[in-house]
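JOB MANIFEST
job_type = single_chain_structure
chain_count = 1
residues = 126
[input]
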Amino acid sequence: MKRPSPRAERVGVLIQEVLAELLVREIHDPRLRRATVTRVRMTRDLRLARVYFTGAADDAAALEAVAGFRSAAGFIKRRLGPVLGLRYMPDLEFRLDEAYDAEARIDRLLHGRDDARGHGEDPAHD
């Protein structure tokens, strides 16, 4: 996989920042209540933004969150347009960030919190 251009990385970070702000202040869809944007990957031509998120408790919640993001996509694009200042507004694709969940699982195992809720050994007794 090719490394994105520095410009694509900058645009991805800007989209992530704006989208995070929109989720907190302007998007009130209950399907997105727990969603957190973890990263945005742009194609080199800046035509597609893959938005990765976490916060879905299970597969059904992830599907609901994707539906919520798709429902809000037009609103998101209207808010992003003036901020990005690009000739073409990128298409938005929303995906559950499975890598983030895997990292969190590994972190829990490494730190003795071995169940899904992160409970386990008391970190104060380390």
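[summary]
The longest helix spans residues 59-84.
The chain has one domain: 6-97.
exit_status = 0
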